[in-house]
Amino acid sequence: MEFSPSDSEQDPLLLSNLKAKGGYGTLPFIVGVDTFEKMASIGLMPNMILYLKSEYGLQNARAVNILFLWSSATNFMPIVGAFLCDSFVGRFRMVSYGSITSLLGMILLLLTTIQPRSPCHQVSESCRSPTTFEFLVLYTSFALMSFGSGGVRSSSIALAVDQLSKREKEEGILERFFNWYCLLSAGTTLIAMTFMVYIQDKLGWTVGFGVPVVLMVISVALFFSASPFYIKRKPKTNLFSGYAQVLVASYKNRLLQLPSQVNYELYHNEKEHMTQIPTEKLRFLNKACVIRNPMHDLTPDGRASDPWSL
């Protein structure tokens, strides 16, 4: 069951249930998924060009281009994941979808090592060029891991912060958490660039690609095992709708005159927002939040009766 801040404020029972969840004890389960996902992605990258050249017979230029596109997609997808998380999905679901998708990509990449093939850039009677289907499986595994990275990396830290209460944050647990997370990220990179690469060199591609799969399976299982104890907040609004409402309301109110004096009572503002007075930048958009008739424009709880006009 998921909770939103507005629900907890209205219902004392929901508030008590919300406080019973979370806590710093849930943080290792959340960070574990993020850690092993990064370890797998970083650990697979250094030797991947050798894998593409030796097992798929690719030239340097094409192999480098493939890895560049994979790396670029992996670094860009957290932006997409953050938008989907805040607008539609929510943090817990985004981490869940991302971890499962990343795991599927790793499994698919592992399956590419099962079919033995002779390198076509070497003289061999059994030389066989990879088929279109084999390339499709390889590219699909890269895509799944990139999408999974976008889901996990965009939302895992935010989900972890949701688990901490105000008292725990005031006690400095949040600062210590970020310190340990940065240290863990550095350690993960070091292990991935040494230990994982060593396994691939000494024990072969199947074992080298299989270890990340095993680690990811364990981390995903632990993440979902602690699911009943997580605080799961719902996304508040669709960002695209919010932007569209501002533009439409500004156009509807284009004939209004902005208040000549700074008076926060003339501007509509949600209770949870800290900003009371619009800035002087892009002032024409300020007309979207000018209150014309409080009795007509606002509901009894102070919200806009028609967000497309106010």
UniProtKB/TrEMBL annotation:
The answer to whether keyword Ligase applies is no
Keyword Transmembrane appears in the UniProt entry:
yes
* Membrane topology field: Multi-pass membrane protein
Localization recorded for this chain is:
Membrane
Q: Which domain of life is it from?
A: Eukaryota
Matching Pfam families, A to Z?
PTR2 (PF00854)
> Where does the UniProt annotation place the signal sequence?
none
Any single Gene Ontology cellular-component annotation: membrane
Q: Which residues cross the membrane?
A: 63-85, 97-116, 136-159, 180-199, 205-231
The protein's GO terms of the molecular function aspect are: transmembrane transporter activity
Q: Which UniProt keywords apply?
A: Membrane, Transmembrane, Transmembrane helix
Report the family membership. Belongs to the major facilitator superfamily. Proton-dependent oligopeptide transporter (POT/PTR) (TC 2.A.17) family.
State the protein's name.
Protein NRT1/ PTR FAMILY 1.2
Q: Which organism is it from?
A: Quillaja saponaria (Soap bark tree)
